Amino acid sequence: MKAHGNTLAGNEALVIAGQERYPGPAYFGMAPGIIKTGIRADLLGGSAAHRLTEAAIGLLAQSAEAYVRRVLPVLFASGLEGRSGDLFGYRGVPIRPSKGFDLKYARLYLTESEALLDRTLNTGHPHG
To answer: Which of 111, 84, 109, 108 is closest to 19 using CA atoms?
Structure first.
């Protein structure tokens, strides 16, 4: 789960600070919430707990198809022009960044991530 959380944080950092750091494309964040997918299989290993978890999510949360129907029109909306950095929730409406995840923190997150990547690529492992 830690890797998944780091991925989410990295995505949020790119959305918030991406335009400034890597100009060109527009950056938007999509936060669908919990959706029934196979993404938790690595964590729960296809066990009975995994199957029960996915069944419960399937009953209580939106499907991937429902999310796509809600969010696809947002991705092609003409009103997105000039709004790079916006985050959209599970209903396709704008949401606020995670608490404490402001531009300053996003910049730091990207700087630290790039340093980790550089150390990893130059030494073969992340701890130098």
So the answer is: 84
H/E element, 105: helix 103-123
Distance CA 25, CA 127 (A): 32
Listed by start position, the domains of the chain span 2-32+67-123
Q: Give the pLDDT confidence of 6-62 residue by residue, as tens digits.
A: 788 888 999 999 989 988 888 898 888 888 776 666 666 667 877 888 888 888 888
3-state secondary structure of 2: helix
Note the pTM of the prediction, 2 decimals. 0.71
Task: Give the three-state DSSP class for 89.
Answer: coil
- Cα–Cα distance for residue pair 110/82, rounded to 1 Å: 22
- Long-range pairs for 29-32 at CB < 8 Å and ≥24 separation? 29/86, 29/87, 29/88, 30/71, 30/87, 30/88, 31/87, 31/88, 31/89, 31/90, 31/95, 32/62, 32/64, 32/67, 32/71, 32/90
